[in-house]
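Fill in residues.
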């Protein structure tokens, strides 16, 4: 049966939250006005998350899952879920219950009123560290100033999207995916619902500082060319300082015969300043060129080692052909004799 709603949940080492998550999500699913599929995407977890997903799938036919062959990151996990989702409305939420599933009916209501995208906007973050709150606050405002499209502040990936939006997202081939930006870029009628972000239900934060920083840089670089221009401005600024220093030196030479700017210290400062400007500019260029390189390589976005719950193989093939995003299955046909029926769906080379 074609589901009306798809819920996508990326999971990375969330064994502590999965049972409670399933309990809360399935309560919401029971009350929805049409068939729902729950797509859990295992992003290369090394704890018992996959085993829990298997047992949830055995227990409840609405649960489907995809399992990556390694950790590819949150944005790619959500992308995989979007590639496989079949619902008319698709909801993305985190596994740690920071995005309350109880908000989904409100989102659906807005969708039924005619909005193609309903995103959740945080009014408050409870018990998250000051550093995270401060950096997030600064980043979202910086992004709003710099980005070419209007990306609303304090929104994450928690949202509902209409089938039409999902289809467009699935045809976007880019590797460095900043989904909330892409979502804004697509347009259509979008609206926000406000919520207070609860602390994580259990377990450690999976978005390490490095991953969050990477996501932030991705957002800026993917949606703004201002950083490139920044190096031009810095170059101009350095040139202006150089001219000023030259005028000062001439002035002192002519009127005082000595100049306080001729010492080693002054020369040293100037050299370091110029060096910094140049390295900084090369770094910015590198960010853009590195992304071009990533795109040109054109590798598949992810590799799957196991999938279950997606009714027909043919349906999967149709979707993978439609979405234009390559993915590869790395498991060998006989690698999992104990779970054949379930696993064989996911086996068979490149689709
Ligand atoms: N996550 C993922 N892959 C990763 C890191 C995180 O799939 O490499 C998932 C994680 O399981 C959770 C969501 O992304 O469902 C958000 O992660 P987290 O709660 O650690 O981040 P934050 O709440 O700080 O944004
Ligand atoms: Mg979280």
């Amino acid at each position: 049966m074609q589901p009306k709603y798809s819920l996508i949940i990326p999971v990375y080492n969330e064994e502590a939250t999965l049972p409670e998550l399933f309990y809360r999500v399935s309560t919401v699913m029971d009350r929805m006005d049409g068939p729902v599929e729950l797509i859990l995407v295992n992003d290369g977890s090394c704890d018992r998350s996959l085993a829990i997903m298997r047992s949830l799938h055995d227990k409840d036919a609405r649960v489907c899952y995809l399992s990556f062959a390694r950790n590819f990151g949150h944005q790619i996990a959500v992308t995989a879920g979007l590639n496989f989702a079949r619902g008319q409305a698709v909801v993305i939420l985190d596994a740690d219950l920071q995005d309350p599933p109880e908000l989904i009916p409100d989102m659906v209501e807005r969708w039924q009123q005619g909005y193609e995208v309903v995103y959740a906007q945080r009014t408050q973050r409870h018990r998250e560290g000051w550093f995270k709150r401060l950096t997030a606050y600064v980043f979202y405002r910086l992004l709003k100033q710099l980005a070419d499209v209007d990306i609303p502040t304090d929104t994450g990936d928690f949202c509902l999207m209409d089938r039409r939006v999902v289809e467009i997202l699935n045809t976007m081939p880019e590797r460095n995916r900043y989904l909330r930006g892409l979502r804004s870029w697509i347009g259509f009628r979008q609206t926000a619902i406000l919520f207070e972000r609860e602390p994580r239900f259990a377990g450690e934060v999976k978005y390490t500082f490095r991953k969050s920083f990477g996501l932030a840089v991705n957002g800026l670089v993917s949606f703004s060319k201002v950083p490139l221009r920044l190096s031009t401005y810095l170059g101009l600024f350095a040139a202006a300082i150089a001219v000023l220093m030259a005028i000062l030196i001439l002035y002192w030479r002519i009127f005082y015969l000595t100049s306080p700017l001729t010492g080693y210290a002054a020369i040293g400062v100037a050299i370091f300043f110029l060096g910094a400007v140049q390295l900084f500019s090369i770094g910015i260029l590198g960010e853009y060129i590195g992304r071009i390189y990533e795109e040109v390589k054109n590798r598949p976005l992810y590799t799957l080692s196991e999938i279950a719950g997606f009714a027909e193989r043919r349906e999967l093939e149709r979707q993978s052909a439609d979405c234009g995003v390559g993915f590869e299955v790395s498991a060998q046909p006989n690698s999992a004799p104990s779970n054949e029926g379930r696993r064989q769906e996911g086996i068979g080379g490149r689709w």
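DSSP finds twelve helices and nine strands in the chain.
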